[in-house]
């Protein structure tokens, strides 16, 4: 999971990109980067850390230009990657291209080999985003041997990317001297939306992972980028779009609605907040059908993502809804923290129980999901320590039993609490007196009711059905072995300044 943003404006974009990344910070807390375009010159700054820590006043002053892209990243596979792997990435041939990517290429290793052996291109990092950038660069050459870059040539290159790349990807890129390009994989797994704004000097455009960034910058949501579609804003500020995939299908990641996205976002025509309310309704209906014997005194959410579901559950069942945990907002999201020990330590730092809401009560705790179980186990114990008589636990999502290979840090079946365990066994593992999971059909219906045009979803982490059709047991074993052995030393921010001869200059601060 990462956050991406791109803006074409009539005024400097450095502050807008910064503000947009702040709004998308929940999608990645490991690294941040911005590239702006000033004519044929790119200005770049990126490093490990939160947006507010990566960019200082001197960095912002150097990010000149009226167009740019940005990225926030979270650590995948528990690997605290070097700052060299912070995005955006850059290549100087052809034209000069910068690219930022949200998702995961499932055939990255084969692509890297092909790039080196057949395309004669070199990849410097282990990031699949750099692989994707080089595939795009090669395809821009392969579809035309003239120095003129036309709209058709750009879209034909994206078609070539779709033919070669497998997995999930939402992409923003800039081509020096030409404009901004954005596209989404043929299944639409990762989200991407377009916004527009009319100003006194003309129309401005913006693309982002979530509509909340568009709202925050006072743009108007135009629409989602369709699965397989590419949009291109040229140097004159004109918007072009084309379907570039041969057989596009819509399979948005349902975990975006469960946890990843902000509740005030709208993804593929669906309000994330409304979805979470409906998830609470479905969970309440299941409790009414199958768990009537539970003597529940109070419903308490695990802050913050589960609040809408917990509130609606309490309303439907006619139970008291109370806030039982206070969150320290200066601690990052534990789900995306690398390492089990760090996650466990951070739970107590992140949450503190309000004793009076637990003492001598039978409490139903509601969370958005249970992934590794570390947080759930600690929270159940906190409720008991605060004096709860009985602690029941409800998950607004089904059991997470399978690795996610499309850009979410769920790579190891050994780390997933639900893998190989029954619901009763999971309840014992987290110390709960009862455990209620959402049914997968109910979760799908909670989203589909809002937008009936959405027929299919990527639900692979719940049922092991990988929509791209290329995931084998051997692939899963490989990524798990890499995950268990991952580990790199961090590096300092890049401060390179390069003079380039092939159409674009890059200045990195």
What's this, in brief?
With 509 residues, the protein is an alpha+beta fold. It contains 16 helices and 24 strands. The relative contact order is 0.13.
Characteristics:
509 residues, 16 helices, six-stranded antiparallel beta sheet
Helix content: 25-40%
| Average pLDDT number | 90
Q: List segments where confidence is low: pLDDT < 50 over at least 5 consecutive residues.
A: 487-504
**Structural class category:** alpha+beta
Strand order of the main beta sheet, please? Answer: 11-9-10-1-4-2-3-24-23
State the separation between the terminal residues, measured CA to CA: 26 Å
Largest sheet: 9 strands, mixed
**Principal-axes shape call:** globular
Describe the structure in your own words.
By secondary structure, the protein is α+β, with helices and mostly antiparallel strands. The chain contains 16 helices and 24 strands. The chain is 31% helix and 25% strand. The strands form five sheets. A nine-stranded mixed sheet has the order 11-9-10-1-4-2-3-24-23. Helix 9 packs antiparallel against helix 14 (440-448) and helix 11 (340-350) packs parallel to helix 12 (374-385). Residues 487-504 have low confidence and may be disordered.
């Amino acid at each position: 999971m990462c956050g991406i943003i791109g803006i074409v404006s009539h005024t400097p974009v450095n502050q807008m990109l910064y503000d947009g990344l702040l709004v998308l910070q929940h999608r990645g807390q490991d690294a941040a980067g911005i590239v702006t375009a000033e004519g044929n010159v790119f200005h770049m700054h990126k490093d490990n850390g939160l947006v507010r820590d990566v960019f200082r006043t001197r960095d912002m002053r150097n990010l000149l230009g009226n167009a740019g892209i940005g990225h926030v990243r979270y650590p995948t596979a528990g690997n605290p990657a070097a700052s060299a792997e912070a995005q955006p990435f850059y290549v100087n041939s052809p034209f000069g291209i910068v690219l930022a990517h949200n998702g995961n290429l499932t055939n990255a290793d084969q692509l890297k080999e092909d790039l080196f052996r057949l395309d004669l291109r070199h990849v410097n990092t282990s990031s699949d985003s750099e692989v994707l950038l080089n595939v795009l660069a090669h395809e821009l050459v392969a579809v035309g041997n003239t120095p003129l870059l036309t709209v058709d040539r750009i879209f034909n290159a994206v078609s070539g990317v779709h033919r070669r790349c497998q997995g999930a990807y939402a992409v923003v890129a800039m081509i020096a001297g030409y404009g901004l390009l954005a596209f989404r994989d043929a299944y639409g797994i990762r989200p991407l939306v377009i916004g527009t704004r009319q100003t006194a000097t003309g129309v401005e455009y913006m693309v982002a992972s979530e509509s909340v960034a568009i709202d925050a910058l006072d743009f108007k949501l135009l629409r989602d980028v369709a699965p397989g579609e590419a949009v291109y804003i040229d140097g004159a500020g004109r918007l072009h779009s084309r379907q570039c995939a041969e057989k596009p299908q819509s399979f948005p990641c349902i975990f975006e609605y469960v946890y990843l996205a902000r509740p005030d976002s709208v993804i593929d025509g669906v309000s994330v907040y409304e979805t979470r309310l409906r998830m609470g309704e479905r969970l309440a209906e299941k409790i009414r059908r199958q768990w009537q014997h539970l003597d529940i005194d109070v419903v308490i959410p695990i802050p913050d993502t589960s609040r809408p579901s917990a509130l609606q559950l309490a309303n439907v069942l006619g139970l008291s809804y109370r806030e039982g945990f206070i969150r320290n907002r200066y601690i990052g999201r534990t789900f995306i923290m690398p390492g089990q020990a760090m996650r466990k330590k951070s739970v107590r730092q992140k949450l503190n129980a309000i004793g009076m809401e637990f003492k001598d009560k039978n409490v139903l705790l509601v969370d958005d999901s249970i992934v590794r179980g570390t947080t759930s186990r600690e929270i159940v114990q906190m409720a008991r320590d605060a004096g709860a008589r009985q602690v029941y636990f409800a998950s607004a999502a089904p059991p997470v039993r399978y690795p996610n290979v499309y850009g979410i840090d769920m790579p190891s079946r050994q780390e997933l609490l639900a893998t190989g365990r029954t619901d009763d066994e999971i309840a014992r593992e987290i110390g709960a007196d009862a455990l209620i999971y959402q049914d997968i059909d109910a979760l799908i219906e909670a989203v589909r009711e809002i937008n009936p045009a959405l027929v299919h979803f990527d639900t692979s982490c719940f049922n092991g059905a990988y929509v791209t059709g290329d995931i084998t047991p051997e692939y899963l074993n490989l990524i798990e072995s890499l995950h268990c052995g991952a580990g790199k030393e961090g590096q300092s921010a890049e401060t390179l300044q390069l003079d380039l001869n092939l159409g674009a200059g890059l200045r990195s601060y």
